[in-house]
Amino acid sequence: MSAIVSAADTRRSRVRLLIVTMLFLVTTVNYADRATLSIAGPALSKELHLDPVAMGYVFSAFGWSYAVAQVPCGWLLDRFGSKWVYALSIIVWSIFTAMQGLVGFLSAGAAVVLLFGLRFLVGIAEAPSFPANARIVASWFPGNERGTASAFFNSGQYFATVIFAPLMGWIAHEYGWRHVFYVMGALGIVMGIAWIKTIYEPKEHPAINEAEFDYIKQGGALVDMDATKDGKAHDGGPRWDHIRQLLANRMMLGVYIGQYCINTLTYFFLTWFPVYLVKERGLSILQAGFVATLPALCGFIGGVLGGVISDHILRRTGSLTMARKIPIVGGMLLSMSIIACNYVDGQALVVGFMALAFFGKGIGALGWAVVSDTSPKEAGGVSGGLFNTFGNLSSITTPIIIGYILAATGSFNGALVFVGANALVAAIAYLFIVGEIKRVQLKAA
């Protein structure tokens, strides 16, 4: 039997690995663009005379539009397919990222308004990204590989910091903070062109062979998710009743709450963490860029490992619920170690606990695998959009709440407790609200 399986494996093409690699690279650039403001933040806030509350609101500008745009962009994905909606998204958000470098040429008041507006527009442009990632994984990967694939593309958020935090820190130090935005915007435009050349649906990809297509289809991949009709992915697109049914589903409600809390850790890291290193721990902006790479690297390793563990549990037990919940709950409990930073003084210990917390966060960041597992075929984009709407409400609340905590206390201690408490709530949501994880079956209206 093993010889037969081995021969079949040899005959199959591996196009799906190219697809998920492209998702990983685009996600890496996506999160690097989100983090540009945090790297440029200390110098930018000093030049524009912004206090912590004002910086909190500027940090949150991305989140307001990103969260609101999720469901409409999910509808666009279901209506027109992932490839071209996502391609336009990449190019447009990159243009708006580059334009943020221009705010330094304005007076302080006008600069703040323009910066908030451009971050707001970046949020709208990036909104299709993760729902599209989930749709593409659902269409290209069988169920027993979906956890690893989702964890791999999602780990791009940590890899972005590993690669780009030192680069952006160096650029800001050597050339000024404006050039951080110029460089990252140009890179994103190049990535958008590469996306157009690389991404196809399973039935349309020129390099896929029949053996791979049959393998992913028989394994549960939704290979005809974007089957076109008159240039549109689905006639009419998803309906409002689909949204109502998803919001009324207890499993999905638990997943939404969990993702909100998990993303609180993400947005602390993307917004206030470099400021924490500079203001609370006395590092220079260049040092902060390099120090931030260790927790990010641990998050990346944890992210990939979480997917591998999840799919291994699925193959051993056949239980999708156990396979997803065990890494998520365990990872979130481990993430609570971020609170320990309040009780140590040495920089090495602080970075060590941060690294441990983000390793746990990486292991537990399987929400997008759950979306691929649970989304109904006829509303995959909308399902991902709803999930990301709830998850990214924390991109609004986290920077603002932490800004107020800093203004009130002058310290990050309360902020770290707030972040750790969210990790605990995420674990509780998956343990007691989510229940059995399975694909949602929508009822006909």
TrEMBL record:
Membrane topology field: Multi-pass membrane protein
Pfam families: MFS_1
Residue ranges of every copy of the Major facilitator superfamily (MFS) profile domain listed in the record: 19-438
Residue stretches in coiled coil: none
Key words of the record: Cell membrane, Membrane, Transmembrane, Transmembrane helix
UniProt xrefs under Gene3D superfamilies: MFS general substrate transporter like domains (1.20.1250.20)
Subcellular location: Cell membrane
Transmembrane helix listed as a keyword: yes
Membrane-spanning ranges: 56-77, 84-103, 151-173, 179-196, 253-273, 285-314, 326-344, 350-371, 383-406, 412-433
First-listed, main subcellular location of the protein, grouped into a coarse class: membrane
Name of the protein described by the UniProt record: ACS family glucarate transporter-like MFS transporter
